[in-house]
Amino acid sequence: MKSIKKIALVSAISASLLTIMGGAANASTSAAPDSMFVAYEGPGFTGRTQVITQCGVTNLRYRGSYKWYGAGQSGRMHNEINTRGSVHFTLPTNRNAQQKTGIGWKSIFKVC
């Protein structure tokens, strides 16, 4: 009977530690800021928008103007869909950028 209680106690402590450690890991990643690219349909930040926060490749639906909020990740801009060809421009990791007029970029690779 004593060994069953000991096993149950060890299991409970292990489960608690895993929960605490998992929560700490999630808290650290969710607290980290994410860069964001907002593509606007029209010039001067007008019309419909496409908000891109995910990592990796995204094709741009709108190219009338854009805003970039640099917060830890960079954005590699390509003039072809699916980030084909060479990188045309890299948006910075640590500062914002914007352009009120149309852009030629057709896709972004957000580096995370």
TrEMBL record:
The keyword Signal applies. Residues 1-27 form the signal peptide. It comes from the Bacteria. It comes from Nonomuraea guangzhouensis. InterPro entries: Antimicrobial_MiAMP1. Pfam families: MiAMP1 (PF09117). Keywords: Signal. The keyword Signal applies. This is MiAMP1 family antimicrobial peptide.
